[in-house]
Amino acid sequence: MFTGIVEELGIVRTLRLLPDSGKLTLQGKKVLEGTQLGDSIAVNGVCLTVIDQTGDEFTVDVMAETLAKTNLGNLKSGNYVNLERALQLQTRLGGHLVSGHVDGVGRIRRITPWGIAQVFEISALSTLLSFILPKGSIAIDGISLTVIDVEEDYFTVSLIPHTFEETTLGLKKVGSSVNLETDLIGKYVARFMGHKVSTQDSKEDLSLAFLTEHGFV
């Protein structure tokens, strides 16, 4: 489990793609403090297990499911990635509960300055948008952010200067892909209410009106 508060920017050293998996080697510093083989580190919001560590580099396996559901397969040597170690029980929960299990990939459609902030419009499948609510939480490339608004085929978030400067979102351009993980609690509420939790197209949507009607809002 993670908080969505990025600890540092790591650097991709190598990504070796195999027929049904991949091996990703990254450089980091802070996230390797106290880290042992078998520990979990979120890489752009994807929970991965450390299988090798030498100096300031570590290697993780990337399964076929992960390659299919995230943008990790597009990484190149020298790319920056957001890194976060798994949550400890005594840690302050500065963001929200993030599992590191990405629901799907979105795409940046617009970046607009607004005062000191940068507003990102991000397109996503309707099935993902069903679990995104205004003023709710979402993890974008592993970054815990608050949703501003949700439209028919996209949603918006606002980044303070610190987040823009200290994470990979400050390096992203219009058209870039991002990993999306919708709110964990919202998905459990949807499951409890009998809605299908899926990243595939579905006729069942969890709307703000539905949550209000049933006392969740």
Walk me through the structure:
The chain has 217 residues and is mainly beta. The protein has 5 helices and 12 strands. The strands form 2 sheets. Strands 1-2-5-4-3-6 form a 6-stranded antiparallel β-barrel. The chain has a 6-stranded antiparallel β-barrel with strand order 7-8-11-10-9-12.
Q: How large a portion of the residues is in β-strands, by DSSP E?
A: 35-45%
Shape: globular
Sketch the major β-sheet: 6 strands, antiparallel, barrel
User: How is the largest sheet built, in terms of strand order?
Assistant: 1-2-5-4-3-6
- Looking at how many chains there are and whether they match, the oligomeric state comes to single chain
Low-confidence parts, pLDDT < 50 over ≥5 residues? 199-204
What helical percentage do the residues reach? 10-25%
User: How many β-strands, per DSSP?
Assistant: 12
Give helix and strand order, one letter per element, not per position: EEEEEHEEEHEEEHEHH
Global Rg: 17 Å
Instruction: Kindly report the average pLDDT value.
Output: 89
Alpha-carbon distance between the termini? 25 Å
Structural class: mainly beta
How many helices does DSSP assign?
A: 5
What topology does this entry show?
Blueprint: E1 8-17, E2 21-27, E3 40-43, E4 46-54, E5 57-63, H1 64-69, E6 80-85, E7 104-114, E8 117-123, H2 126-129, E9 137-140, E10 143-150, E11 154-159, H3 161-166, E12 177-182, H4 184-192, H5 208-213
Antiparallel strand pairs: 1-2, 1-6, 2-5, 3-4, 3-6, 4-5, 7-8, 7-12, 8-11, 9-10, 9-12, 10-11
